[in-house]
Every structure is written in structure tokens, then in C-alpha cells.
What we know:
Strand content: 35-45%
Radius of gyration: 13 Å
CATH architecture: Roll
Shape: globular
CATH class: Mainly Beta
Number of helices: 1
Distance between the termini: 28 Å
Order of helices and strands: EEEEEEEEH
Number of strands: 8
Helix content: 10-25%
Amino acid sequence: xxxxxxxxxxxxxxxxxxxxxxxxxxxxxxxxxxxxxxxxxxxxxxxxxxxxxxxxxxxxxxxxxxxxxxxxxxxxxxxxxxxxxxxxxxxxxxxxxxxxxxxxxxxxxxxxxxxxxx
Length: 118
């Protein structure tokens, strides 16, 4: 299990950040992704309080890469060991950052959420 994965009441909370402001990550509040019971969601910490559902059906992975020096949100640089997934969100590029293993877990869960809705 990746190190940043926390379990709480049958759910997993992955330390991850969307680097753009979106309807599911207003003002960049999210520091974790909730996986497991219920739809994937952005949360301000471990727990479903304040959770915003991630519209997995809208997202397509464009590329996954290592962090570069210009990655960050309002000057807040993500850890250098993290990777960035560039996602297409209905024609808009949004970036999701997490440790490599954690990012893989989140991307698999997002793909699975889309298949469950089909």
C-alpha cells in the first residue's frame, strides 16, 4: 500500500492535489482524494467532510510526467518526488499531482468509476 494512503471507515484517502481551480476543487481547497465508499471525491483532508465529487466521466488522461520547476499552484510547489497527471476536463487541461504510486491508484479508481457508471 502506498505510504500516503490513509484508511478511514472502509475508505482510502490519498494525499493528492488538483493544481487548478475547478468546480470540484474550488479555490484549490483539496489536499486528498477519497476512494472507496461512494464516488471519488476531492477532500480538504482524510474524511468526507466538505467532499466534492470528481466528475470522472468528464476526465481523460492526456499524459503523466514528473514535476517540473514551474508546477505549482499560486507559487506553492508540490513535492519534487511527485508526478503530475495532465487531464482533459471537457476541453480544459487540469493537473493532478501525487506521489507516483498514489497517482496510479487514483487514476485507476477514476477509470473504474467511469466504467461503473456506463
